[in-house]
């Protein structure tokens, strides 16, 4: 009888997660646990804890490189960190961000994706933007590139948006976001990442989407959750976003902290109302 407090923990020979598995998890109502990683050691930690999707985020510009935004991150940075993160994974699905202005045209996006998947071993690329990205997503999807569409708060547009602010509280903006999610899915997006929106909007977009919707500060009703690994381990300096929970509090080890995060996502106890926006 398995009495482990972490029934989701994976064996090293577990079958790798695929896009089809993620779609099945949404259909079955199984929450998808995601985390960022930027190197092989953290990737291996997350893999053995049962994380389903690992994101090499351009957040590395802030948490690894010490910049104030993600804007300075280069394609070479992303290729390097994607490659060394892939080296630590056995089961988890690997997704990598396209950095600022590396997908300004659909041809740029294809070339950047080629590098991230070919040199960086990514299995899916993620980039920011609503309706304006529909043609790019269609262009990539038709050529075999799996895409995650990132809407809501878009960190690469921090200077345009005037800061890191909750999106979608205005009714017209919320309607646009609901429309954009449908447009991007129809264009071929395999997943949607929804950042910093009211819980009610996160729930509505998720209910209407056929593809998995992963939330970060988007409430408890999305198909999965993602956080920055340094945030859940209490390593990030400065003020923490409302949606962050430090899973190192009370944990005996790094392994326990990451396993606790996965378990909390899976059983729905994270995020709680205190981590959500109205």
From TrEMBL:
It is an enzyme of class 2 (transferase). The active site is at residue 195. Pathway: Cofactor biosynthesis; (R)-pantothenate biosynthesis; (R)-pantoate from 3-methyl-2-oxobutanoate: step 1/2. Its EC number is 2.1.2.11. Its cofactor is Mg(2+). Binds 1 Mg(2+) ion per subunit. It catalyses: (6R)-5,10-methylene-5,6,7,8-tetrahydrofolate + 3-methyl-2-oxobutanoate + H2O = 2-dehydropantoate + (6S)-5,6,7,8-tetrahydrofolate. Mg(2+) binds at residues 58, 97, 128. 3-methyl-2-oxobutanoate binds at residues 58-59, 97, 126. Keywords: Cytoplasm, Magnesium, Metal-binding, Pantothenate biosynthesis, Transferase. It is found in: Cytoplasm. GO terms for molecular function: 3-methyl-2-oxobutanoate hydroxymethyltransferase activity. It holds the Pfam family Pantoate_transf. The keyword Metal-binding applies. Catalyzes the reversible reaction in which hydroxymethyl group from 5,10-methylenetetrahydrofolate is transferred onto alpha-ketoisovalerate to form ketopantoate. PANTHER family: 3-METHYL-2-OXOBUTANOATE HYDROXYMETHYLTRANSFERASE. Belongs to the PanB family. Homodecamer; pentamer of dimers. This is 3-methyl-2-oxobutanoate hydroxymethyltransferase. It comes from Salinisphaera aquimarina. The lineage of its organism: Bacteria, Pseudomonadati, Pseudomonadota, Gammaproteobacteria, Salinisphaerales.
